[in-house]
Amino acid sequence: MASPPTYDQLSLIYPAGDTDAVAQRFASLEARFVELYGGKPEFYVRAPGRVNLIGEHIDYSGYGVLPMAIELDTVVAVRRLSHVESGSGAAQLRIGNTRRDEFAPHTADNADGDVVIDSQRHGWHNYFLAGYKGVMEQLRPATPLSLQCVVDGLVPMGSGLSSSSALVCAAALATAAAYEPHPPLLSKVDIATLCARSERYIGTQGGGMDQAISFLAQPGKAQLIEFDPLRPSDVVLPPGAVFVIANSLVQANKYYSAFNLRVVECRLAALVLAARLGVPLDGVRRLGHVHALSGRSLADMLAAARELLHPAPYSLDEVAAAIGSDVETVRTTYVGSVGGASFDLHRRAVHVFAEAQRVYTFRDVCAQATSDGLQRLGELMNDSHASCSQLYECSCPELDQLTSICRAAGALGSRLTGAGWGGCTISLVPEAKLEGFLEAVRRDYYAAGPLRLDAAAVDAQHALFVSRPGNGAAIYRPA
């Protein structure tokens, strides 16, 4: 697998972008860099956000997902310094941001050692430190460099479009590129895997989708991304419709939400289901493990979850009894610091197995290119949202309202995308209905109710826009 590409022209990174707007953005980023550090950056890196078309909350259970990269991204300007040049006795990492009023600069001293990340304090710089730490632990350079960095991010925070992972990925790529060619740049798969692992430094227990699509994206194509091992495959979307992202403007944050609780519920569901099916528990951490070890089909696993996991929430005592263990072992080995007195195993497992089936059906419908393909894709998206809302309970009233408005405005299908509990929806809209769709959503969601946003405000917040599959992460070294 190739490494992230390096370009010397911005038009190669943003082939469909507004040339003047892109140039102005990079000029403003350079100006901020000069203001902070007194010199120009050597190079830039960018990592895109993503939108998941279908396959929500199943990557960390071991199942494939179907995202695409979006043009909105995080860019980092970088300059390397030796210890002498930086005036420090050890490697030093300095991080600034173009949004100076919101994100204060941060300096990490002794950055050649084990960078300390306080996951209990939710600072923006922690995401950068996570990517930096992951790469430094991988490379272990003999002579660590000091880095000066400035971040410019366009992915709306808490939108479900992977703003946090885009920052982690950009930080990791910036760090890896600073040491190129000794050692050589990591491959796309290696750095994506490293970034997924690095997010655990900030308390997030995701599955790897966000980081994988950020590095593996191909322009014009979505990607079916499967795990263990990480492997992408192209999915060509059928013509005649576009995907439209609409932001509920309810901020979702995986750190403060029930995200990590859902990870634990799926882990406990895997253990109880394995015990019920007679699958050895050694090494079982995911529902996908139980599926593989049992030798059953996805349809059989879905039926087993419905039959063998009772609908009422489980206590830790019940889980321990079901797997032949004790409460303390279950708590320390499988639950950890995640709170919760009861765990809804039935609905979480049913969602995971059914959603995994929908992902593969979505891929197959795209490949078949039949006359009713768009309608079928829309139905899969609607079913996915219903499952996320009713079984996984990761929706919210605003997302449910927004998806209903999108369907009424002409979408063939509409669903939440990302972690949920706020953030964005993704809708499949026939091209012939696009303008009317956008007008109706602006009127019925953004202008109505408590938001009271006019069209200019909606555009300024990147709240409603057409999305096409974009490029993956890259390095930009100006000619």
Indicate the overall shape.
Answer: globular
Give the overall pLDDT as a whole number. Answer: 92
As a whole number of angstroms, the C-alpha radius of gyration is 23 Å
Walk across the major sheet and give the strand order.
1-13-2-3-6-4-5
How far do the termini sit from each other?
26 Å
- Taking pLDDT < 50 over at least 5 consecutive residues as the criterion, the unreliable ranges are none
Give the amount of beta strand, in percent.
15-25%
Estimated structural class: alpha+beta
Order of helices and strands: EHHEEHEEHEHHHEEEHHHHHHHHEEHHEE
Put simply, the count of helices is 17
Largest sheet: 7 strands, mixed
Q: What is the count of β-strands?
A: 13
Percent of residues in helical segments? 40-55%
Question: Could you walk me through the main structural features you see in this protein, from its secondary elements to its overall organization?
Answer:
With 479 residues, this protein is of the alpha+beta class. The protein is built from 17 helices and 13 strands. The strands form three sheets. Strands 1-13-2-3-6-4-5 form a seven-stranded mixed β-sheet, sandwiched between helices. It starts with 5 loop residues before the first strand and ends with a strand.
